[in-house]
Amino acid sequence: MSSQELDTARLETKDDLVAYLAQGVKPAQDWRIGTEHEKFGFHLNDLTPLSYDGSNGIRALLENLQKRYGWDPILENGQIIGLRQPGRKLGGSITLEPGGQIELSGAPLKTIHETCQEVHEHLSQVRSVGKDHGIGMLGLGFSPQWTYAQTPHMPKDRYDIMKNYMPQKGNLGLDMMFRSCTVQVNLDFSDEADMIKKYRVALALQPIVTALFANSPFKEGKPSGFLSYRSAIWLDTDPDRTGMLDFVFEDGMSFERYVDYALDVPMYFVVRNGQYLDMSGKSFRNFLDGKLEVLEGQKPALDDWEGHLTTLFPEVRLKRFLEMRGADGGPWSRLCALPAFWVGLLYDQSALDAAWDLVKDWSVEERNLLRQEVPRTALHTQFRNTNVQKIALEALAISKQGLKSRNLSDAVGNDETMFLSELDLMTQTGKTSADILLEKYHSEWNESVASVFQEYAY
User: Fold this and answer.
1) For 233-247, how does the pLDDT look when each residue is reduced to its tens digit (9 = 90+)?
2) Angstrom distance (rounded) from CA 140 to CA 451
3) Closest by Cα among 165, 210, 101 to 433
4) DSSP designation for 317
5) Residue 223 pLDDT > 90, yes or no?
6) Total Cβ atoms within 10 A of residue 229
């Protein structure tokens, strides 16, 4: 089935699902970088979270952004729930997470310089409009102060379905939904073999990135006991759809193998006539066979498959690109560091080979142990006869060389390695953002998190 036919047809067999993923294959000259980041909005006068309604709520913020900067509204049940850049089919949207976290889903861009400019323009817009409403934006991986009960819920039907299902599968799924923020990067592959190698490197090194970007040490006004509490939450959210995906490292890994995994992850919903139908716990495999209860005899459309893939939450997610999901939300400058780190590792062949050499003999047990321990101890985590700080230094050196080989400079001659400067300092000192936050909490902040809303705001 051709790409055009697949986009419009009902999906009949597993081969159609595999073909969808394979459509992501691109020659290297067409590879792009898509950056996504979430942030907490808060009222400057009392540091409380933003409700949806009200003159200084999220709806008012979105409407003002729309009017001032020409965004197109995204509506659900007649209510504005996001914004889209006019004329762009891919990327360039602002959406709402369950607890009112505001996410930029960036357009696919060629260089880190371009993606960083996109981040800069977005944050400038949000900050400008926020001033009109007394709203600030905070770059942190987990809400430092608000309880779940204090956190507003956004009017999106899919989140109601997830909210009801999450507690059946783990203890911390609602914290993940309503009180966490991340920064992610989406990257391309040239063929199935390239996807597999990049997937393996990205999964193995994801805990190293979690350590480098650890920036969520607080929960409800006190230290949580973790340096990345956001990452710890995912360990107790839903084992059916999270984790390190050990099968990616096994012989036989392929687009088809990932489809088999995805088919066995329980569904959340399907959308019909603009309405979300609760399918939580049901089988997409049955849906593909026309045996899904409620929709008996119906086959899924492409939108159903695309929607289902967005409800899988492994550390690295495969769609028609690879999505790196291991980093806490953070300050302005670090939003550019994450795509720079991964592009340096994965978009230069010599760097990718070196990164694979670094991780290829790690066992399943070692990879999963890193995933378990890094949320608590970050760069201080012990591994074999070394620690994560030393591994991060090696990975960063490989990434830097990969960016140098790309040799893509801005207007004044700076190449993309400039975006790794913060990570350079962190790996040299061994102090993550979370370590620094805790030091301030126990000294100049007098065991109060209120100052984080000033010092870590955009």
Assistant:
1) 999 999 999 999 999
2) 13
3) 210
4) E
5) yes
6) 29
What are the Cα distances from residue 195, in Å, to 28, 100, 291, 305, 321? Answer: 12, 33, 32, 20, 8
Q: Determine the straight-line distance between the first and last CA of the chain, rounded to whole angstroms.
A: 47
Helix (H) or strand (E) holding 80: strand 79-84
CA 109, CA 412: separation in Å to the nearest integer? 19
Nearest residue to 303 (alpha-carbon basis) of 277, 324, 264: 277
Q: Which residue carries 């986009």 as its tokens?
A: 7
Quickly list DSSP for 262-304. Answer: HHTSPP-EEEETTEEEE-TT--HHHHHTT--TTSTTPPPBHHH
Q: How far is CA 384 from CA 129, 363, 390, in A?
A: 50, 11, 11
Which pLDDT does position 294 carry in this prediction? 87
Two tokens, residue 72: 């197109």
pLDDT of residue 332: 87
Q: Is 415:409 a contact under the CB 8 Å cutoff?
A: yes
Q: For the chain, give me the number of helices (H) and strands (E)?
A: 18, 17
- Tell me: pLDDT of 7 over 70: no
| Model pTM score | 0.96
